[in-house]
Amino acid sequence: MGEQVRTTVVALLIAGFSSTSIAVVNQPESTIDQWHAESSQHTLADSSVLTEYYGFTTATKLDNVLLRVGFVPRFDCSPLIGIVIQHESAFSGKPEEAPLPGLDVLADGDSLTLSIDGVPMKFPVAADGDKKQTRLWFDSAFEDRKALQSKFDLGNVAKLSLTSATSITFSLLGSKSILDGAQSLCHEHDPIPYEKPKNR
Questions:
Q1: pLDDT digits (tens, 9 = 90+) for 52-66
Q2: DSSP letter assigned to residue 88
Q3: What average pLDDT does the chain have?
Q4: Sign of the C-alpha dihedral, residues 3, 4, 6, 12?
Q5: pTM over 0.70
Q6: Alpha helices in the chain, H assignment, sequence order
Q7: DSSP letter at 142?
Q8: Which residues pair with 57 in a beta bridge?
Q9: Cβ atoms of residues 160 and 83 within 8 Å
Q10: What is the phi/psi pair of residue 124, to 5°?
């Protein structure tokens, strides 16, 4: 099933409903590794609960921009990769005064360039968001998302180019252990029993 589910389907499920952080995945203490992991639950329209385990890191010079990789048990724990641009500083809580150039013209189907250790590749975009954040999902099939996760495992630095003059850089150091841990917890996930809502 995971191979057949497009990024946009899972992304809309995750983005469209309430989310509650429920746990933090165990991770090694390090001043070098900048990756962290959490899990969250999303209540869907039919009252069922969608659980996601994900790893994330902040951009090297922008604390309001995250690179995240999520794993959802319901969709065989295939990686869901995205860039999240929060419209306020994660530290100060104040709105960003200068939005990143290029975000206002992005649309579904557009393709950006993601370079890992200087090697460029296409980053097809499924864009969504709200007043609080803009999300740029890597909109591709399972095999492509799995391959990109493997590149994160082996890489040191990822750079996403929004325009010819604007790019966002992320450290990949520590990503492998964090993402492996999050994905393992996804595979070990014990589903919450679903009770169909009673008709009134």
A1: 999 999 999 888 899
A2: B
A3: 78
A4: negative
A5: yes
A6: 7-15, 142-154, 175-187
A7: H
A8: 67
A9: yes
A10: -65, 135
